[in-house]
Amino acid sequence: MQIEFVHQPGNTAAKVTLAQGETCTAESGAMIAMSGNMDITTTTHKKGSAGVLKALKRKLAGESLFLNHFEPLNGGGEVWLGTALSGDMFAMDLDNENLIVQGSSFLACEDTIDVDMGWQGFKSIFSGESVFWVNLKGSGKVIVSSFGAIYPVEVDGEYIVDSGHIVAFNETLDFSITKAGSSWIQSILGGEGMVCKFSGKGTVWCQSHNPRSFGNAMASSLRERRA
Amino acid sequence: METYTVNITGEISEYQQRDEAIAAFAKLFSISPAQAEKTFEKAPIAIKKNVDLETADKFKEALIGIGVECIAIASSRAEDLAATQASVYSAEPDVSVQNNTSEPDALAATPMQEDEFKGFEFTIEGDPDYGFVTVQLPADKTIKVEASAMATMDTNLNMKTKFKGGIGRMMTGESLFINEFTAEGGSGEIGIAPGAPGDLSHQYLDNQTIFLQNSAFVACSEDVIVETKWQGLTKGFFSGESLFLIRCSGVGDLWFNTYGAIIEIDVTEDYVVDTGNIVGFTEGLDYKITKVGGYKSLFFSGEGFVCRFSGQGKVWIQTRGVDALVGWAHWFRPVKTNNS
Fold first, then answer.
1. What is the pLDDT of residues B85-129, one digit of tens each?
2. Is A141 a member of any domain?
3. What domain count does chain A have?
4. According to DSSP H, which parts of chain B are helical?
5. pTM, full prediction
6. What domain range is A65 assigned to?
């Protein structure tokens, strides 16, 4: 599986070239174009295992938990992947390790990677936020996307990142939810609310913009919807 | 005012390797080495026409700097020369290939393709994120521009609103009007900016036909015929997209835009494109709206219906889709309360 990015950083698209026998797993809706010989199968997590109901149970607003698996038939093929929001992407090789990725930032990976959508690390604490997290396990290539630019932060010690700006982080890092200011009142009035404090050694990839803030900025101009 | 034409002789300076010179030439004009090679094969050839002496000197300097021999001659004389070379220009109209990946470059801002094609002189700036185009209209020439896309223009440009494409155009969701701008009593320039931020692409039509997705049309020269084409009910009905394509044919410049960047794909067999990401395609490609994978994929893949192209031709796709953004924004809409 070969990955090539075009039109970075604003209008990035990923061109994934697959040889015969290779499979690429991508977030649902990410495909913008592909070779005619590409076969798509849709599953809830890893190819070969079923469980639509299980996925529906976990379905959260704005995100579908379905994955598409692309496999070229009769020879090689290519798939172009894009996102709804403008921004950058990056690819990395996992070497038998875990990467925690924010649900809407996960774009694609090789099928040797196990995509675990049930990662609950933040769930109880971030309740009310429609954010879910994906745990990528194993060895192989992964593609992660962002809203705006991506920048890595090497954490050695402690570091604080607003939850909406987290794209991905090494699972080697410990994390806790904390308040941004010295008191809760200050934190909430300051618009930061809860933030994530990382500790240990590892990398956190951050995005320059928070999709939630963008959405909220538009909200007042949008027409009402039915619940 | 006397204008000048810069010609390359096809000779390379004895202090420079041919390959290196061609590579540098390709970089200078943001074209592929293969195109540069082709251009050299056709030399002597004009690469920049009707520029003032200062610009001509700048080109000359840049070319000599990379070891390419060239001469700048007054345009009045160049015309005689061009007449003898006319057959060369028209014989190979397909030298230009879209080059979206190129970085903006001092000279590359005015790619050479416009001269070879004898279309209007123009510059596209800000692409791929915020592309807009500035077109230099020769005296008494007319350009057709999508309604409301004109951003800036010289005062001698006169605008006429024309009813183009009839009722069909109204139904595409596209504005019903194309405005015509004519440069009166001298040349003039017009700056055109499409509604969605993204890429802008130019094609010179030489009796070819290009189909564009409804909102992709930006501008074209007077002789390009713009019409709507009925896709047939089934083709449009399931696609979730609008029912119409705009058909552009004839001879002249055509500019179209995208939301997101443009990717050009040469289709040789089959290619599948998400309906929301189609920008346009050349005539001769067969297309049909199909589903991807099995029925489970239809409902859960997030792809829904796609467009399957077959045959030989080019398809332009965009890296983003307005529909996808709208879908994303849906979750931020305020919820309607029942007690109101």
1. 433 333 333 334 444 444 444 444 444 444 444 688 888 888 778
2. yes
3. 1
4. 18-28, 33-42, 53-65, 75-91, 113-117, 166-171, 233-237, 295-300, 322-329
5. 0.67
6. 2-219
- Reference A115, options A202, A72, A55; nearest CA is A55
Pick the CATH number of B119-329 from 3.40.50.720, 3.40.50.150, 3.90.550.10, 3.60.160.10: 3.60.160.10
Q: In angstroms, what CA-CA distances link A170 with A5, A117, A155?
A: 23, 16, 10
Q: What is the CATH number of the domain that holds A48?
A: 3.60.160.10
Closest CA to A98 of A202, A22, A14, A3: A202
| A6:B334 CB<8 A | no
> Residue B331, SS3?
helix
> Which of A4, A5, A6, A7 to mutate against chain B (most B CBs within 10 Å)?
A7
> Is A226 a member of any domain?
no
> Best residue in B272, B277, B287 to probe A by mutation, most A CBs within 10 Å?
B272
The hierarchical CATH code for the domain B4-91 is: 3.30.1390.10
Asked if this assembly's ipTM is beyond 0.85, the reply is no
Q: Determine, yes or no, domain membership for A227.
A: no
CB B214 within 8 A of CB B244: yes
**Contact residues, B window 28-87, toward A, CB-based 8 Å cutoff:** none
pLDDT digits (tens, 9 = 90+) for B26-58: 877 777 777 888 777 777 777 777 777 778 888
